[in-house]
Write a structure and sequence with these properties.
The protein is about 15% helix and about 30% strand. The protein is globular. The protein has about 190 residues and is of the alpha+beta class. The N and C termini lie far apart (about 80 Å). It contains three helices and 13 strands, in the order H-E-E-H-E-E-E-E-E-E-E-E-E-E-E-H.
């Protein structure tokens, strides 16, 4: 009887040690540390999205505006209110109405296709595709919005009923004179 209890105790301790060994290890303070394996999901940054991350100056005459793309491909459009087409306040609002540049793109997200080398920005009913060489900026724009397809080589500047979109002119590289921190710090009340 004592022999059977002894065997059960040893079996129990061996099982407990096996379970503990599978669950993790201890750090120097004795806390259990979870083992990570290659099957764990890690959040990684796509190098292709990093190439286009930044604040883009998408202003057009008398209307100062910016488009921000973060490292995860999220898109935010901002309209400066201190210009001739704004309210006169020295602050920014998220573009949300037809009078504001890129209102159709605000809140969208960008994906990249390794197979085609094309970025696709999807936001509501608007889809914008473009390429980036990393050297000359963005180009080869194709916007589909409200059932109409617009094409642009190195820039896209569309102003028509129900669509008010600008993706700058020239090389379309991120601007250096303003950051997303500057914009975020000056959001209208």
């Amino acid at each position: 009887m004592i022999k059977q209890m002894y065997l059960k105790t040893i079996l129990f301790l061996a099982t407990l040690l096996t379970i503990t060994a599978c669950g993790g290890s201890s750090d120097s303070s004795g806390n259990t540390v979870r083992d990570t394996t290659s099957t764990d999901t890690e959040e990684t940054t796509d190098d292709n999205l990093e190439r286009i991350t930044g604040v883009y100056d998408v202003s057009r005459s008398n209307d100062e505006a910016y488009l921000y793309i973060d490292g995860d491909g999220n898109v935010e459009a901002y309209d400066y209110q201190g210009d001739l087409s704004g309210t006169g306040e020295n602050c920014y609002v998220r573009s949300s109405s037809v009078e504001q540049i890129n209102y159709l793109l605000d809140g969208g997200s960008i994906t990249y296709s390794n197979a085609t080398g094309i970025f696709t920005l999807t936001s509501g009913s608007a889809t914008l595709t473009f390429t980036s060489t990393g050297l000359t900026g963005l180009g080869n724009f194709r916007l589909i919005a409200n059932g109409i397809t617009y094409l642009g080589d190195n820039s896209l500047d569309i102003e028509t009923t129900g669509v008010n979109i600008s993706i700058g002119t020239g090389n379309n590289k991120p601007v250096a004179n303003i950051s997303i921190a500057d914009i975020s710090g000056a959001i209208c009340g």
